[in-house]
Amino acid sequence: MIVVSAASGAFGRLVIDRLLERCPAGRVTAAVREPGKAADLAARGVTVRTCDYDAPRTLRTAFEGAGRLLLISSPELDPARRAAQHRAAVDAAGAVGVGSIIYTSFLGAGTQADGFTAAHHVTERHLEASGLPHTLLRHPFYSEAFLNPGLRGAVASGELADGTGGRGVNTALRRDLAEAAARVLTEDGHLGCAYDFTGGLWTYEDLADTLSRLGGRPVVRRDRADRAPGAQGWLEERIRSGALERQTDDLPQVLGRPATTLDEAVTAVLAAQGSTA
Question: Helices 79-95 and 56-63 sit at what angle, rounded to 10 degrees?
Answer without folding.
Answer: 40
